[in-house]
Design brief:
Elements (H helix, E strand, L loop, with lengths): L8 E7 L5 H15 L3 E8 L3 H10 L3 E4 L8 H13 L5 E5 L1 H9 L7 E6 L7 H13 L5 E4 L2 H9 L7 E3 L13 H8 L7 E6 L8 H11 L5 E6 L5 H10 L6 E5 L4 H7 L2 E4 L8 H8 L4 E4 L4 H4 L7 E3 L4 H13 L1 H18 L2 H18 L7
Helix pairs in contact: 1-15, 4-5, 7-10, 8-13, 11-14
Length: 382
């Protein structure tokens, strides 16, 4: 028989608040699929980071569009735009990232027509409304072809909520390591007037309550009496003003710098003596992988997939969540023993190269995509 071939299409869907962990993983996957010959698309349904996501996708040579460049889009117009988009692709893998695209695809009945894959990066549940939406999300995911969890904890939540075990895969995030200029770290410190001799801690991610940045500030307040330590908080979020007020109340204005969203994360990590991640809940944060890639020492809480990625005492300092004493002790040790910090960072980098590259993540997703494609009867016939 004559071979029947067609281009395989994959569409990444996200409602985005900025180029954070989920968005970075999405772009890495979309780029990998393009390299494997797939017709790879990125679609931002809405969000403050929509235009930024599209710009970054275009820079990677990807087809990309945003329903709106920033801000929220009403539900009905979003549904209409999404229906129009999907009608252009009678055969495609539609890959959603987050509760909003998951729910919208279910409302449209997309799982009955196209291949539907979802990645669950984490559920935060910081309000009653979010708890309801996340419960609905877990329910609609039962109808998807496949659901990917980025941590064992997320995987367990999926199966407990009724998603069939055979539909769930654990795929850890992966990224590409960036190359930075030799003076990148010095330039970042000059920008914020941080002395080269000072110890610099960076915290990167959404300014959300679950990140427990207040614990980091409490640690810095106690450390400031014995060392010249500065903090750079990178990111935006609903806790921004609360953190500004907290910094003032602890008289840390000269030491703590809130710089908002930044795209030069690799340069910031090179400038830092330490990445601190103080969250009480996580999946597998991309910033952890970025720090591993850039050989930046890490102090992180024992949450989500972090303890499976980083070995306490070998690759990083891993401390209990919500324990300011343990956090302060780990930060003090990391900053006062730079040779130990450097050795652990080198060990973490070796772990990154072996297990958390873009290609290792992409290959696992490609297996899922091929399985879903075949399930829908779209495999090439010869």
């Amino acid at each position: 028989m004559t071979a029947v071939t067609q281009t395989r299409t994959a569409i990444q869907l996200v409602s985005t608040g900025g180029l954070y962990g989920a968005e970075r993983a999405l772009l890495e996957l979309a780029s990998y699929l393009k390299d494997q010959g797939w017709d790879s698309h990125v679609v931002a349904l809405e969000g403050q980071g929509a235009a930024q996501l599209v710009d970054r996708a275009h820079a990677l040579g990807l087809a990309a569009e945003a329903f709106v460049p920033s801000g929220r889009l009403a539900v009905l117009p979003m549904v209409q735009r999404l229906r129009q988009l999907l009608s252009r692709y009678p055969r495609a893998i539609v890959h959603s990232h987050g509760y909003k695209p998951d729910i919208l695809l279910s409302v449209l009945g997309t799982p009955r027509k196209l291949g539907c894959v979802a990645t669950c990066h984490n559920w935060i549940s910081e309000s009653h409304k979010m708890r309801l939406l996340e419960a609905l999300d877990k329910r609609v995911l039962r109808g998807f072809d496949h659901v990917v969890a980025v941590s064992g904890e997320v995987s367990a939540q999926l199966t407990t909520s009724g998603v069939p075990l055979q539909k769930v895969s654990l795929i850890k995030n992966g990224i590409s390591a960036e190359v930075v200029a030799d003076d990148a770290g010095q330039r970042v410190r000059r920008e914020f007037d941080i002395p080269l001799s000072a110890k610099l801690i960076v915290q990167i991610g959404r300014l959300a309550r679950s990140k427990r940045i207040d614990l980091l500030l409490a640690s810095v307040s106690s450390l400031a009496a014995s060392m010249d330590v500065h903090v750079l908080l990178v990111g935006e979020g609903d806790q921004g003003q609360s953190l500004v007020d907290l910094v003032k109340s602890q008289n840390l204005e000269s030491r703590v710098h809130l710089c908002g969203y930044r795209s030069d994360i690799a340069q910031i990590l090179v400038a830092a003596d330490l990445l601190a991640l103080t969250s009480e809940k996580e999946g597998l944060p991309i910033v952890i992988l970025e720090a591993m890639a850039m050989r930046c020492p890490i102090v992180a809480t024992r949450v989500g997939e972090i303890p499976q990625v980083l070995r306490d005492g070998e690759d990083a300092w891993i401390v209990p969540s919500n324990d300011v004493g343990a956090l302060t002790a780990a930060i003090r040790e990391a900053l006062t023993h730079p040779e130990v910090a450097k050795a652990r960072a080198a060990s973490a980098h070796a772990q990154f190269v072996s297990h958390h590259s873009r290609n290792s993540m992409g290959a696992r997703y490609l297996e899922v995509y091929e399985q879903v494609w075949t399930q829908h009867g779209w495999a090439e016939r010869r």
